[in-house]
Amino acid sequence: MALQLVKMIRIMTKVDVLRAAEIHVFGQRKAYRGILTDRKLFAETSVVGRADEFLSRFDDVGRLGFVYEADGVISGFLIVKPSPDADKPDAMELERIFVEPLMQGEGVGAILLDYCHKVAKEQGYNEICLWVLEGNALSRHFYEKHGYVLDSAKDRYMDTDVVHVRYVKEVIM
User: Fold this and answer.
1) Distance (Å, rounded) from C-alpha 24 to C-alpha 51?
2) CA dist., res. 20 & res. 31, Å (int)
3) SS3 readout for 49-63
4) Residue ranges of the alpha helices (H) in the chain?
5) Domains in the chain, ordered, with CATH?
6) What is the pLDDT of residues 39-72, one digit of tens each?
């Protein structure tokens, strides 16, 4: 007899922030190594610092966080907000989506992305946009596989020379 895991997506609470920060920092280190410098990923980024950043923006209007939990273990999260891009006033931005690196490949990212689409539809958005590092081929493939299309918008990622590109997807009502 196989054990049934209790799986759910729920709203992120302040108690979840440290775990989300841990997933984010280690996920970035895995995904961005070779794209960003080791100094940026290891010396300038910490779980505590990221948790402080998440907490400082926790109550931002329109910003929502969700966690994926299986048997009490958070293995992924996503954060959405109204798009700040002037040319996307009616879009929701998928600000962050990360899965615990040791649990990647188990479908958690796809489940979270589907949930993101559900939230966008419920909130009346007609489009979802997201930004991804141009050199992050794995993430770009993931988004393309789920129907996201590269548009012409580009910018610099934070204070680096790394290019950030934008993907968009229409929300089907």
Assistant:
1) 9
2) 16
3) HHHHHHHHCCCCCCC
4) 17-32, 38, 47-56, 108-122, 137-145
5) 7-170 (3.40.630.30)
6) 999 999 999 999 999 999 988 989 999 999 998 9
